Amino acid sequence: QGKFTLLRDTRTDGSFLVHHFLSFYLRAGCKVCFVALLQSFSHYNIVAQKLGVSLTAAKERGQLVFLEGLKSCLDLLFGEEEEQSGQPSPLQFLSESASNLKALFDFVLTSLTPTGSDSCKGPVLLVDDLSILLSLGATPVAVLDFIHYCRVAVCSQLKGNIMVLVHSNEDSEDEENELVVNSLCHHSDLILWVEGLATGFCKDVHGQIKIIRRVSLELTAEQDHVQIYQYKIQDKNVTFFARGLSAAVL
Questions:
Q1: Is the pLDDT of residue 98 over 80?
Q2: How high is the pLDDT of residue 85?
Q3: Which Gene3D superfamilies match (predicted)?
Q4: Residue 96 resides in a domain
Q5: Among 17, 48, 43, 51, CA closest to 209
Q6: Is 113 exposed, middle or buried (0-12, 13-18, 19+ CB in 10 A)?
């Protein structure tokens, strides 16, 4: 509890981690606020059904609060946004001159603050993916402020967990995105860094994952613990193995 996990991908797609954590926490009975900026609800629901979880049922029983970023953006831009219970849209910054993500933070806080009738376990915030906010016009400072306030509210006060996916590329000229990624790396308790193979495409090995446990955050003299595995994504699960030890090689 109270951990901030950074899901980072480079030269590949790390969205399988988002699907894993979404289904994992829903099965565990946690209250999940999912800020989905990359795909539609139906996309996540189809993948979740393969993993044995129904997002529709989770929404109906109040366990899942889902923000469909694609739909909200279109509604805002074309003036069709219906204010629910008098509250502004979580992505209100799109229609304002100030790059302020306070409305999005208020949405997260309202979604995860337990009520008297709430029987769910610890709250979880899942964001897919944070880089989209920069593409929509939010400044790096606004994005980092948003994450900072979420960490204080969700991790420290509510004793919940946060998972955030970001895309990164060492060769990228997108300085704002790299600034956000590097800043988040310094604040994370755990980094799951998915990378494409340097040698290119392989049918039996889809990439490697670097698991970095930030022991140095605890102000001890120890260095961060780093483990590296390779993986292969299958229809309903992912297989992990030590580097060079895939079934195709052996």
A1: no
A2: 45
A3: P-loop containing nucleotide triphosphate hydrolases
A4: yes
A5: 17
A6: middle
Single pTM value for the model: 0.90
Please name the residue ranges forming H helices in 85-130: 102-112
Largest CA distance in the chain: 61
Report yes or no on 12 lying in a domain: yes
Q: Grade residue 36 by pLDDT with cuts at 50, 70 and 90.
A: very high
Q: Which has the closest alpha carbon to 168: 7, 4, 17?
A: 7
- Both tokens of 162, joined, read 């946060």
**In this structure, is residue 151 part of a structural domain?**
yes
DSSP state letter for 157: I
| Domain housing 64 | 3-76+88-193
- Tell me what pLDDT residue 115 has: 76
In a domain, 221, yes or no: no
Q: What is the CATH number of the domain that holds 23?
A: 3.40.50.300
- Note whether 16 and 46 are within 8 A (CB): no
**Residue for token pair 């799951």:** 192
Beta bridge partners of 211: 192, 227
Number of domains in the chain: 1
Strand order in the sheet with 4-10: 64-68, 30-36, 121-128, 161-167, 4-10, 190-195, 207-213, 225-233, 238-241
> Which of 151, 146, 139, 136 lies closest to 1, judged by CA?
151
